[in-house]
Amino acid sequence: FCSDRILCGITSVAFSKSGRLLLAGYDDYSTHAWDTLKATPPGPVFSHEKGQGHENRVSCLGVSADGSALCTGSWDTLLKVYA
């Protein structure tokens, strides 16, 4: 899973509860979710890029037990929850 917009290292990965989404946090402060069942269209199905999410690299992420929320942690000392 890749995108021409992503030019940095991956810092964390997780799968959604169903296994359908592959979630990744990056050095460029962004978070992306990839649909593992679809090859097209290319690119993430969810993106929070620099300026929209964290102000430093994403260092960890996790999915709630029921699969309804994504939480990201960053070197900017913040946790962000997307539900």
Q: What key attributes describe this structure?
A:
single chain; 83 residues; mainly beta; four-stranded antiparallel beta sheet; 7 strands; 0% helix; 42% strand
List the helices and strands and how they pair.
Layout: E1 10-15, E2 21-26, E3 31-35, E4 46-48, E5 58-63, E6 70-74, E7 79-82
Antiparallel strand pairs: 1-2, 2-3, 3-4, 5-6, 6-7
Number of strands: 7
Largest sheet: 4 strands, antiparallel
Q: How big a fraction of the residues is strand?
A: 35-45%
Rough outline: globular
Widest sheet: strand order?
Answer: 1-2-3-4
Distance between the termini: 23 Å
Which runs of at least 5 residues are low in confidence (pLDDT < 50)?
Answer: none
Count of alpha and pi helical runs: 0
Question: Could you give the order of the helices and strands?
Answer: EEEEEEE
| Radius of gyration, whole Å | 12 Å
Helix content: under 10%
Mean pLDDT: 82
Structural class: mainly beta
Characterise this structure.
With 83 residues, this protein is mainly beta. 0% of the residues lie in helices and 42% in strands. It contains no helices and seven strands. The chain has strands spanning 10-15, 21-26, 31-35, 46-48, 58-63, 70-74, 79-82. The strands form two sheets. The chain has a four-stranded antiparallel sheet with strand order 1-2-3-4, with no helix packed on it. It has a three-stranded antiparallel sheet with strand order 5-6-7, with no helix packed on it. The two termini are 23 Å apart. The model has no long low-confidence stretch (mean pLDDT 82).
